[in-house]
Amino acid sequence: MIKTDIIIIGAGPVGLFTVFEAGLMKLKCHVIDSIAQPGGQLTEIYPKKPIYDIPGYPSVLAGDLIDKLVEQASPFKPGFTLGERAEKIKKVKDGFLITTNNGTTHNAPVVIIAGGLGSFEPRKPKIDNIENFESKGIHYIIKDPTKYETRNIVISGGGDSALDWSLYFAEKNIFVDLVHRSDRFRAHKDSVKKAFEFEKDGKMKIHTFSEVVGVNGNKNLETVLIESNKKVKEIKTEFWFPLFGLSPKLGPISNWGLKIEKNAIVVNTFDYSTNIKGIFAIGDVNTYPGKLKLILCGFHEAALAIQSAYKIINPDKRYNMKYTTVQGIQGF
Amino acid sequence: MSEKIKLKITDRQGQKHDVDVEIDSNTNLMEFCRDNSFGVEGFCGGMGSCASCHIHIESSEHYGNPDDDELAMLDDISNSKTNSRLGCQIEINKDIDGIKFEIAQEP
Q1: Number of domains, chain B
Q2: Contact, B54 vs B71, CB < 8 A?
Q3: Measured between CB atoms, which of B43, B47, B80 is closest to A117?
Q4: Chain B CA closest to residue A211
Q5: Mean pLDDT by 10-residue block, N- to C-terminus, for chain A (332 residues)?
Q6: In which domain, by residue range, is B84 found?
Q7: pTM for this prediction
Q8: The domain spanning residue B69 has which CATH number?
């Protein structure tokens, strides 16, 4: 069981900045996120897009902002449970018990939900028996690539995730069949160029205007059917990774007894507390009159929520707020 | 009184809606559908990065050509067709008066 002061659900920009704000008040945080790396939608959806409304940054790439926030939070040594979705919550004597879909348990007196638009669920291709092979050769998210180091693999998609993983495996001399519905790729141009170079070197085969249309196997995946120009070819493989991106769903949080309106958690703007004492909601996941879904508003909400969180965690202590220019950063 | 145009929308339940919309500067089809309870999330805010505003244009007209980024996004969605567009990339103005479209099912 992981014990901490504050469980933060969501490792996006607002969740990461909460770690920093909590750290200033000597509160330790543990962050849970369904994606395998920090950053939320900034990393998952638009890492290469510039953001222009972060104070002090005339322009910053979404991915770079996340790197900076991770660096800013690092003196406070946050714990992370990544690639697991916060599934269940239970009120216990000393706060809350949160269990993920993998069964990891976390305990803290305060929970701060910074879940953005919810947990990211993979977009699944429509193939009849696909469910039979999920986690038995078909994986929508690659958490630990060393598990898949075999002779050859198949990857579908044209975005950064599909290309980056194709290059990763090809570099390890694992032959990759990359299957994409057209000859346009959303991925970074350099990655696409490198993939075509790898194809020339015989390390991968890029199937454009193609789709995986069927999967077969006994218990585990054994072959996939690739359709190109109305011809179907069967390829032997132990692993197929359909990487068509992820889309967010509020998911299990909606069943936690929180007051919800239009897919967002209703909060009190005094401290962004929810209807359950000890649970706060900040960033895109909350709603209140005048709500603006901006990263900078989420940062403000984090700072205020932490003030009330401190009082719950330390009911008998008074906190004397000092500027960082006065006290500096005293990490853990 | 500002000018109005007509939109013919088929929602994800197959219900048809004929709506009159004021030509409002800086509003696109995703924002209109999101703000008027058509169940469109538009969670990337209109960057063309999430495809949650995927629509199928049913009018014969094409209403402009999607750029390469939009096409590449559409290529990554399993239920995209040749008449697919991202609602966030189509601005509401008099050029699209009478546009008929279906909000695509979530893939």
Answers
A1: 1
A2: no
A3: B43
A4: B78
A5: 97 98 97 93 87 96 97 98 94 96 97 91 88 94 86 93 94 96 90 96 96 95 95 96 86 93 93 98 96 96 98 93 92 92
A6: 4-103
A7: 0.81
A8: 3.10.20.30
